[in-house]
Amino acid sequence: MTNETIPVTPVTGYRSVTREQLELVEEGKKLALEVGVYIEKLERLRPERSAPGETPLDDPDKNTEGRWVAIGKTQLQQGFMALFRSVFRPEGF
Description:
It is a single chain. The chain has two helices and two strands. By secondary structure, it is mainly alpha-helical.
């Protein structure tokens, strides 16, 4: 593997990266997709909405709490985004 600088998609404010950096981001993107599949499995376990006063978690072995799944999903998305930005280091916001 050579470490030459290669241009990224021409987007204003992004710098060119090395082949090694690009391969690391690609590896991370594949990992993020695997994490996404896992999250989708958790989302399918979410209970249906219940009537006021009823608990949707009568069988905790078959259900996940959707709020925590959503929080975990969002934070993982933010984490992967931060890792990718650490490589591409965009200028500005």
